[in-house]
Amino acid sequence: MSKIFLVGIGGISMSGIAKYELKQGNQVYGSDIKENEEIKELRKMGATIYLSQKAENIEKNLPIDLLVYSSAITIGSPGDAEIEVAKKQGVKILKRSEYLGSLTREFSTIAIAGMHGKTTVTAMLGYVLKEMGEEPLVFVGAETGIFDYSNVEIPSNKPKIMVIEACEYDGSFLDFSYDIGVILNIEPEHLDYFTEGLPQILKTFNTFSKINAQSGTIVALDHPTVRQALDGVDKKLVYFDPGELEKEKIELKIPGAHNRLNALAVLKVIEKLGLSVPRAKEILKNFPGTKRRLEYRGEFKGVPLYDDYAHHPTEIKASIEAIHEKYPNNNLFLIFQPHQYSRTTLLFDDFINSLSLVDKLCLVEVFGVAGREEMANCKNSNSLFEALKDQVSGLFYAKDYDQAENIIRKKINVNDILVVMGAGPINILATKLIKNYE
Questions:
Q1: Residue 290 lies in a domain
Q2: Which domain holds residue 75?
Q3: Which tens digits make up the pLDDT trace of 371-397?
């Protein structure tokens, strides 16, 4: 039995690691700055968790075999004190991606990469493999109702296959190994890290694509930018194209052309694994989606309410189109909170283009991310409001969730579809609306 300490244990990826280690019979300790549902669940499973981050959390639990820390922990942040004392005590220390990378080398791994859709495709593929009896180990970046431990599927036997999200931010996916790598899309994103823009992103994806040199397969979107990233890659390349959707006739519970394209990527992987594509199509018909990906939460004043994690202009546009597809005769009332001042600034024009597609829009002030906001003269939600004045007739600004709730209550109409959107904790607002209405 090993003793493992996780700094930032309440994060969606870190909590998955904690659950996996608990199921291996190891002792799990951890810290975070506030309680959440993942922490409550981990405590029930046997983890010891501190809602503070300080040196004594490490000192009183020595000896510790391994410390794993989240990408959210930066120099000078509260969790850094725990890392520093662990270093002095000679504890083995791994970044989250290094830990997961070590796991990818233990199993036959499918790594899902791309700026958008990673969570949905990882969940879709894990769901299909589980239903097919393939006993996958799955790490997904969202809560789900389809896996035994919500954001992680841990089979009782030794896993045959591991499915994992491969995030490009800070080059995390370069720590992974894989037998099949999937690239869903590539475009400018995380520009606080990729400060050189698309050329740096392409170079990073090219490096990811060359992991394990000539072995393995890349399943990739057939798009000029993706093909550019795959230049010089000496592996088997399998492409999927939106033009194939008409022939494939993919049926899903969850709406949107982007989700049908996600499903097509899954089918390409299933085919590569030598499994039944027709069987996979049947299973996908019942895929319920994941939390916070156009998740139907219930009704508010008789109006359907959805919770969505979209925070990039491309994702916003895809979600808007999906709602219009499902509800062609209704008006979309979007409550959107931008995530990061830097993203809002660097992709400002793209945000305007996407947000102008809605009927009514309430812009909540930007959710700033500690340690990742170093730009001067940043745009904010008020900047978006001013730019959209002539494009969206029902336009509102809210400084916080309480003000947004008041606007919703006053402006909601029976023909509206309400979508609460953003990568910050704006899902709290969706929960409050449903709870108060009930």
A1: no
A2: 3-95
A3: 665 566 899 999 999 999 999 999 999
